[in-house]
Design goal:
The structure is a single chain. The protein is α+β, with helices and mostly antiparallel strands. It has one domain: Phosphatase 2c, domain 1 (4-Layer Sandwich). It is 32% helix and 29% strand. The chain is built from 7 helices and 12 strands. It has a 6-stranded antiparallel beta sheet. Strands 3, 4, 5, 6, 7 and 10 form a 6-stranded antiparallel beta sheet that branches. The longest helix is centred in the middle third of the chain and has 21 residues. The relative contact order is 0.20. About 2% of the residues have low confidence.
Length: 245
Amino acid sequence: MTGLQQKSQRACSAFGITHKGRVRAGNEDAFLCNVQEGVFVVCDGMGGAAAGEVASRMAAESASEVLSHSEPTEGLMREAVAAANAKVYSRACADRRLEGMGTTLVMLSIAASDVYIAHVGDSRCYLWRDGELTQLTADHSLVEEQVRLGQITRRQAERSALQHVITRAIGTMADVVPDVERIEIRAGDIFVLASDGLTKEVSEPEMASLLSRKLSEQQSAEMLVAQANAAGGRDNITCILVRIL
């Protein structure tokens, strides 16, 4: 298990952590926690063996490079996702051993009075504000599409054998379209970026209950990972907590 904590010049503090879980032999998740630049990324790689690890690491690094030393805008967030996608896709095309690799991506970048969030796949971003937890991203997944179309209920989606099937990913095609959102920030806001290894094991009420305890970012993140492992730990688990000061 690895973690990283820093304090920022951008009036935030954060802690990021990743754990391989209780079932998987390796960890294909990656995260980047650049508090000085106000850039945070969580990626959940796929492709098996080393391929998923390569994809997630490359995507996180490539996206953050675009955003470093710049004020975020919607256009810049899309540019960062495009850069990550091009890097992973070209690497997969050049090396047959990495063919088919890809990764999810959820990314947050802090500006003066707001944040920008971009995502591809089913890694998520939540906002804890005034005692309420809100999911800010909508999964790019087959079951989410089925729920949106009224084909299955939310409860059925949570139990579906198809819940790991995602409909968009970084690096699997030459182009990808992210969802991008801008959120005005308030002092005390906590943003949670997480891979599905956390969100499929820890329910939103459980997450809200933990965040209501007003612990440090490190304590909260470590307890979320512990809860995910206690619930089965069937996938790699990664989360970043970002607090607006």
